[in-house]
Amino acid sequence: MGAASCTEKCSWSPSCDRDGGVYLDFVTAIPSHGSCGAFDEELIEVECPAGATFPETVQNLNALDRHFLHFCGSSNVVVVRWLLHFGASPFAHDSNNTTGVHVACRAGSAGVLQELLRHRPSLDRADVAGWTPLHVAARMSRCSLVVILLKVGAPLGSRNSHGELPSEMCLDEATHMAFSSYQEHLFSSSRSPWSFQVDRPDAEDAEAPLPTPFFTPQHPIASFRGHKDASQIGVRIFNAQPGYGIAFIRAVGLVHDYPRSASKFLLQETVDRKAVGNFLGETFAMCDTLRLAFFSRCDLWNTGVVSALLQACHGLEWPDDLQKVNRLVHALAINWWTCHEEFADEEVLQPDDLDEIRGLELKSKLGNAENLSFLFLSCLCLHHYLHECAGRMEPEIWRKFHESIETVPPVVLHKIFAVIRRHWIPQFSIPFLSSKNFKRCEPLPVRSSSLPWLHGIPAIQGWLSVESTPPHDIGYRSKRELWISISLGLLCFSLSPSSAAPEACLALTGLQSHWDGERVVLQKHSGSRSDAAATAGKADVMLAHLKADGSWKECQFQKMELSIGPSSQEDPQKWLQWLADSAIDINSV
Hints:
Layout: H1 6-9, E1 23-24, E2 31-32, H2 63-72, H3 77-86, H4 100-107, H5 110-117, H6 133-139, H7 143-151, H8 173-187, H9 228-240, H10 242-251, H11 259-265, H12 273-280, H13 285-295, H14 305-312, H15 322-339, H16 359-366, H17 369-388, H18 395-400, H19 410-422, H20 431-434, E3 460-469, E4 481-487, E5 490-494, E6 504-507, E7 511-515, E8 519-524, H21 529-534, E9 541-546, E10 552-557, E11 559-563, H22 572-582
Antiparallel strand pairs: 1-2, 3-4, 3-11, 4-5, 5-6, 6-9, 7-8, 8-11, 9-10
Helix pairs in contact: 2-3, 2-4, 3-17, 4-5, 4-6, 6-7, 7-8, 9-10, 11-13, 13-15, 15-17, 17-19
């Protein structure tokens, strides 16, 4: 019998708020429709986290426990062990009662699950929807994890809030067969331990290919490449709001719009290294490409684990977030791996005193780039524990932390341990681990009376009401008044006089301005009436709307009007003069 349509199951219109389409509910993982509340399988009354955690459900946890739950959803069992070693609770759970075991069962990491089971968690603990870890593993088709849970006695008879047993939630044949085999074993008289052979690995257990982020360059609204003052503005914006800074330097042509060119901009001496680390560690799509481009500039050839990390530290400081650090070292590992190709030239010894296994020899012992990324992060954790915590650790304990990385021989770990124990390296400090309270320090509010990124650069600024054809969507929709600044041939729009970054900007090159008696009107310069007639109706005012993720959107307008009211005490003629002086080709400045 086919599934009923949206119109057959509810009284909403056929279009629904999701166009009648079936989508996968991000919490329940059960096919459903939009606001109509109809479900193809059943009506869900309680949201089912299904092993997922969300920012709002972990906000009351300390930072160690938050990171612990996050990394339980990865395959990095090494950092899970380190977090437990630093004091994270193996029994931590979010406000939905989702535990680390729930999270590991959703993600499918057998290594993380087995590590958590060493701490004897309660396997009959249910989340807010009554799901035990076995429910999650069964629903997510984690056959190998189902087998592990059954072997350690996970309860078969627990029912969730809808009365379902874990065995009733199987979506694949292999997991269903595992439950059937275990139940047959229970009813048999056999005293031998139950065993079940998993014929295929879970989807996430297979080695993932190296990422190849896709990047599409955009044509900038201006060409400021090589302009010192504009570059200074870009650096100031980046240091305060990194995402807006990247969007700005791309939009105004300070860099060629490719990740490698932007990464070179970040290596300037005046760029805040802390801001670089924080932004490159974000989850934005732009950061995926920038991370790889940034580390491609590091001299990683013939380096080892410690020396590669030293190369990475030349251009950034580690962010105050262990998840961001993990993304950074993952990108570093990919760059290291790809630059050590088998057909490379003979190794060249580097003159330093770090006695570690390097280059192609190291690559031959690691197996894959993921293992290298695990070692990078573990190396930083070891440095923190030995030098900043003054902790004592025997090499054998360090080796046991990496038991899950089967391809890494003990000699590699022994040499890394010896180097880290011998050398205190200030660049390896991770603020998150160094903070006693494990709390992020909030930045101080900006108290500048004028735009900080224009400090010392000639400009005119003031509150103006901005109207455009078609209507713009800059700043708050209900507020058309914006803080306007003109400098270096750019008209910038900000939300307040102390904004750390502009909301949008447009190049005044090729535009003309005039006073119509009530407002200043900006539109494309036309030499004659025939030219004006030919360009009538076209979008000639090009504006770049900057975004916090490093991207920018090109907005086109036929004209833009700046209203100067009596209360603003602005001189229209002064603004007109600045606009006229700025409407020149920036290349001639």
